[in-house]
Amino acid sequence: MSAAQPRRSRERVLTMTGIGKRFGAVKALTDVDFWVNEGEVVALVGDNGAGKSTLVKVLAGVHPPDAGTIEFDGGVVEIGSPADAQELGIATVFQDLALCDNLDVVANLWLGREMLEGRLLDEVEMEQRTWTLLRELSARIPSVRTPVASLSGGQRQTVAIARSLIGDPRVVILDEPTAALGVAQTAEVLNLIETLRERGHGVILISHNMADVLAVADRVVVLRLGRNNGVYNVVDVTSETLIAAITGAMDHSHVQRPMTPPAGTPPSAPSSSPAATTTPTPPNVIDLPKAGSRRRGTRGDA
Ligand SMILES: Nc1ncnc2c1ncn2[C@@H]1O[C@H](COP(=O)(O)OP(=O)(O)O)[C@@H](O)[C@H]1O
Ligand SMILES: [Mg+2]
Q1: Which of 67, 75, 218, 245 is the most exposed place for a label (fewest CB within 10 A)?
Q2: Are 144 and 151 in contact (CB under 8 A)?
Q3: What pLDDT, in 10s, does the model give residues 79-94?
């Protein structure tokens, strides 16, 4: 694993090629291609059972894939465990957030990675770093010494995201971060996602909410029945088109079209894949802009 490479802006961080995963007789993923660049928000959408969670669990080291390759910072890696994912710099905020309600914000952020001073917890340092991180995220948390049980849904999501940033990961995966939130809290979390992009993290956003996806993502990857069913640049796509791709009204999975190589595509990627020998059908890629060229400002500054 090569987690310690120097950071360059807008480079490809992660490339998955020809990923396959079976659970017994169920083909959860078949020949799936996926990538994310630094400073890019990629939405991963699809109907229930499309394979979204399975794909991110492959990245999180929960499910090793049966087929395909994963490249991270240009080198082929195997993510055999959650510890491997963490070491590479892939952080996942699962939908249940996995916070400890009875502990305060500081304790939740540093749980399992507590800072010590001698044999004692360095509470001062942990609290200071918590404030620094929350300030960088422009997060609105009233006190870092409140138990997280007393926080709103949006604040809890913020704490979970802040916690995922402790190791300064290259890729942050968010599974349905706004699913349980009201309008104002959703806007706060979407702003937070934009902050993650500005900090240079590659962000993978699983969402059912097309408005959220269109507001915050740069690119949308559609999965359907465990296969790629379209890759769209958000500035060129409508929610109708996305819904058609999600439901199968628009079937891209068998369409043969030349794939526009996105910015930063490593030329060696397809040939290093075992799937390349079977000439996989590329997903449609519609007019990808150069990374970082878009600022849409659909929501006001918060
Ligand atoms: N641990 C598992 N064991 C057996 N089947 C699974 C498991 N996880 C997912 N699946 C199956 O894989 C397919 C994709 O599921 P999933 O990745 O959860 O889809 P999504 O997150 O898009 O709703 C579904 O058919 C689901 O039933
Ligand atoms: Mg799921």
Answers
A1: 75
A2: no
A3: 999 999 999 999 999 8
